[in-house]
Design goal:
The chain has helices at residues 3-26, 58-61, 155-182, and strands spanning 31-34, 40-43, 48-57, 64-71, 76-78, 85-93, 98-107, 116-124, 130-132, 136-141. The chain is of the alpha+beta class and 183 residues long. The longest helix has 28 residues, at 155-182. The N and C termini lie far apart (143 Å). It has three helices and ten strands; from the N terminus they run αβββαβββββββα. β6 (85-93) and β7 (98-107) form a beta hairpin. It has a domain at 30-141: Immunoglobulin-like (Sandwich). The strands form two sheets. Strands 2, 4, 5, 8, 9 and 10 form a six-stranded mixed sheet that branches. The chain is elongated and about 140 Å long.
Amino acid sequence: MTWLGVKLLFMLLTMAVCFYLSSSLDASPVVSLRYLKESLVGTEDTSLRLTCKAEYNRLLCGQIKAYWCRHSSQNCGELLDPMKYLTVVNETKLVSDDILRQVDIVFKQLALADQGVYQCHAKCDIDGHSALGHFINITVKAAPIVNIKNANDGGPNRTYNTGLVLFSLVILEIFQIHLGSEQ
């Protein structure tokens, strides 16, 4: 083999390795997650929504299980209670065999106990590939206390006092009618 042949062979091998590495670096993961990276603040007795988008390839992944969970000391428990959460799942076909699954969890009525760290998970059923999203911190503020005496500019107290005066006038009128009929 001549010197030119060795250089040509070396150049072809280098190009093949570079092509292989560049194509493997461009390959998208089997499943990936996207959602906001900011902490959320909610108020007690109001609703709050968490949205997670899982993109996956149906041929490589099959079906996926995508869900939200809350971290405790040792695990991340899936949010399943239908009395507490409303789960909404939408799926959109993208290009080729890629699918976008959106999983929303709506806290129907936030409680102070809902404060904590949450995370979105997705797992393929074919090969076990999975994706874990980043942590989302939810802070729950106590519901504002409404002072009934001052609500509506006197509110119930003024109504109660007016009702008492009207009731007294009606009783006096009935008493006068009763006294007038005895005479």
